[in-house]
Amino acid sequence: MSDYYNAFEISPVPAPGPDAVPPEPFRGIYGMPAFVTIPTTDLAESVDFWTRGLGFFELFTIPGTLVHLRRWAFQDVLLVAATDVPEQAPAIGVSFACVLGQLDGLVDACRAVRPNSVTGPRDTPWNTRDVEVITPEKARIVLTAAKPFDPDSQEARNLEAIGITAPAAGEGDNVDRARRD
Predict the structure, then answer these.
(1) In angstroms, rounded to a whole number, what is the distance separating the alpha carbons of residues 119 and 41?
(2) CB under 8 Å to 70, separation ≥6 — which residues?
(3) Rounded CA separation 145/70 (Å)
(4) Do residues 148 and 19 lie in contact, with contact meaning Cβ atoms separated by under 8 Å?
(5) Cβ contacts of 169 within 8 Å, gap of 6 or more
(6) CA pair distance 169, 181, nearest whole angstrom
(7) pLDDT confidence of 74, banded at 50, 70, 90?
(8) How far apart are CA 93 and CA 107, in angstroms?
């Protein structure tokens, strides 16, 4: 038995590539394995930014108290009414997966709602393109999209240096690619 397997079969995140298509918004109810709770002094302003800017939708609302937002399956955010929020964004943040084809549109939408809310995009050494967004509640959100894998790239060499090697043609899991402890 292996400690590693191809987890794309349970993930809503599509395999990276130039034709990757984001999954449809997931409107079902499930036990959330993780979620983010964000306090806000203005639920309406926050919902507007998260829906028009970041592409989330309202799953349900408890008026004046809480709004449950979602994007893809397992991308859940609870906006909760609060009397105050921090004056600046904390160092800690949360990342949400995207596909490359979505990033430009999300950047444009966020900037249309809040012009100075976006930093980036920037390419990372681990083969993603990331955009940082500061929401009206001062939450630090990173929209991250995997780039197509180029086995001859610096990113591939970075990953190989930590024990993650490229799959062989037709290989479907990462049993032989991930370093075991």
Answers:
(1) 24
(2) 25, 26, 27, 56, 57, 59, 76, 77
(3) 18
(4) no
(5) none
(6) 25
(7) very high
(8) 17
Q: Is the pLDDT of residue 56 over 90?
A: yes
Tokens of 120: 């980036």
Query: Which parts of 21-99 fold into alpha helices (H)?
Result: 43-48
Average pLDDT of span 132-150: 93
Alpha carbon of 128 to those of 34, 65, 135, 146, 156: distances in Å? 22, 36, 22, 4, 11
Locate all alpha helices (DSSP H) within the chain, ordered by sequence: 43-48, 100-113, 154-161
Nearest to 97 by CA among 60, 137, 133, 130: 130
